[in-house]
Write a structure and sequence with these properties.
The chain is 27% helix and 25% strand. It is α+β, with helices and mostly antiparallel strands. The protein has 2 domains: 164 residues, FAD/NAD(P)-binding domain (3-Layer(bba) Sandwich), CATH 3.50.50; 164 residues, no CATH class. A 4-stranded antiparallel beta sheet has the order 10-11-6-14. A 3-stranded antiparallel beta sheet has the order 2-3-4. A two-stranded antiparallel sheet has the order 1-9. The radius of gyration is 23 Å and the shape is globular. The structure holds flavin-adenine dinucleotide. Flavin-adenine dinucleotide binds next to strand 2, helix 5 and helix 10.
């Protein structure tokens, strides 16, 4: 499968703006906060050239409806209709001519415009297109559905004399979330790029959460097994957040049952590739060997084979991939500018357009893509 037809560099200016829109406080560093200051921030990362940190930054959170309501109300060039559900998109000869639907009070409406942007989330984008038989000459609408797996896969005993988080980040009382002055950060450990490439690994982040302070090895059966008596150890839970590779057989399909608007409901058949779980097993292996080799801890992984992991994978509510971006119209639904291959005046924005997924939350990239689309549309 093809990857992104645009590069990270194409998105940099929009990521910078997206940080502001989402009100992510990076202490004025912008994207540099992701690249420089925090790559070796935890002690584990600084103790091994194999490890780096990839950290999640949080917004306050910013509720867009509340935060930007006033701007929308005051904008002279925007009419915003709330509680209005689009059910029908009409198109012919490669062009969309009308949207119609119904208000929550049951009042029908229709809208005509020169350009249409579909931004209803990764499941609804696909459902609207499938329902209205649009944008699907490639048969890719609803395919490559993905989410992010997040699997609590291990317990670790790590040397209690080390602090395994950033030296200038204090452990917040909320489990797993760390606080450097103002900014809320969730640290993840990953591998240096050359190790990921050499081992053909998916992208991932390991969140290491303090489970409890053991104090001394005599307190814990696990630690007795692994450390000499008297050595201070702490017990951690390990969560691996992982990317899934795109799978065209992972689908959203319409079913016969209908919702209150008369729209077909969907059946979700999420099928992570076996490759992803084999990759996870390699990640576990490399991680625990490195921790062992450096004598900074011991890791006890859940004993599972890939098929079991596939069944037990938990989801993170990050819907992805159902209208994928591709410069080849046979392998996707939208082009590099988010314009539908099949309809010259229909654009789609959202994580439905991601051709590959990474392991990080999707919203910053969704906002960056939306800002880029605004730029393109306003200069057309
Ligand atoms: C519990 C939870 C926690 C999450 N945590 C995080 C997180 O920490 N970080 C992060 O980055 N992401 C997180 N996400 C994911 C994040 O919410 C999504 O990535 C993001 O909201 C997607 O943005 P969007 O604008 O594409 O779609 P949405 O936010 O889903 O917006 C789509 C809009 O379209 C409207 N709509 C849908 N269908 C129609 C229709 N037929 N007619 C008219 N309007 C319609 C919907 O009402 C909605 O307002 C989380 C999601 C969940 C559920």
């Amino acid at each position: 499968m093809s990857g992104w037809p645009i590069s990270y560099n194409d998105l940099i200016p929009y990521y910078e703006q997206a940080l502001d829109v989402c009100e992510v406080d990076t202490g004025g560093l912008g994207l540099q906060a992701f690249d420089k200051n925090f790559k070796k921030s935890s002690q584990l990362a600084s103790q091994s050239e194999k490890f780096i940190n990839k950290n999640f930054f949080f917004s306050p959170p910013t509720r867009f409806g509340k935060r930007y309501k006033k701007e929308l109300e005051q904008a002279k060039n925007i009419n915003c209709y709330l509680n209005a559900t689009v059910t029908t998109i009409t198109g012919s000869n490669g062009e969309i001519s009308q949207l119609s639907g119904v208000s929550s009070a049951g009042k029908p409406f229709s809208i005509e415009a020169s350009t249409y942007v579909l931004a209803t989330g990764a499941i609804e984008n696909a459902r609207l297109l499938l329902t209205n038989k649009l944008a699907n000459s490639s048969d890719f609408v609803g395919r490559c559905f993905s989410d992010h797996n997040g699997e609590m896969v291990a317990a670790a005993v790590l040397d209690g004399n080390n602090k395994y988080f950033n030296h200038d980040i204090q452990i917040n009382s909320r489990k797993g979330q760390l606080l450097p002055e103002k900014t809320l950060i969730m640290p993840h450990l990953s591998f240096a790029d050359d190790i990921i490439i050499e081992n053909k690994l998916i992208n991932f982040g390991i969140a290491i959460e303090l489970s409890y302070r053991v104090g001394s090895t005599s307190d814990s059966v696990m630690s007795l097994r692994h450390f000499e008596t008297g050595k201070k150890v702490d017990l951690f839970n390990i969560l691996v957040r992982m990317e899934n590779t795109p799978n065209p057989n992972s689908t959203i399909k319409l079913i016969n049952s209908r919702d209150i608007y008369g729209m077909p409901r969907i059946k979700l058949d999420w099928q992570p590739n076996r490759y992803d779980f084999e990759s996870l097993l390699k990640i576990r292996d490399i991680f625990s060997k490195e921790v062992l080799n450096r004598n900074i801890g011991r890791v006890q992984w859940k004993q599972v084979d890939p098929s079991q992991l596939q069944q037990s994978a938990s989801i993170q509510a990050h819907h992805l991939g159902t209208t994928r971006m591709s410069d080849n119209p046979e392998l996707g639904v939208v082009d590099e500018n988010l314009r539908c291959h099949d309809h010259s005046n229909l654009y789609i924005v959202g994580s439905s357009c991601f051709p590959s997924f990474g392991f990080a939350s999707a919203t910053l990239t969704i906002v960056a893509l939306a800002l880029r689309l605004v730029d393109k549309l306003s200069t057309n």
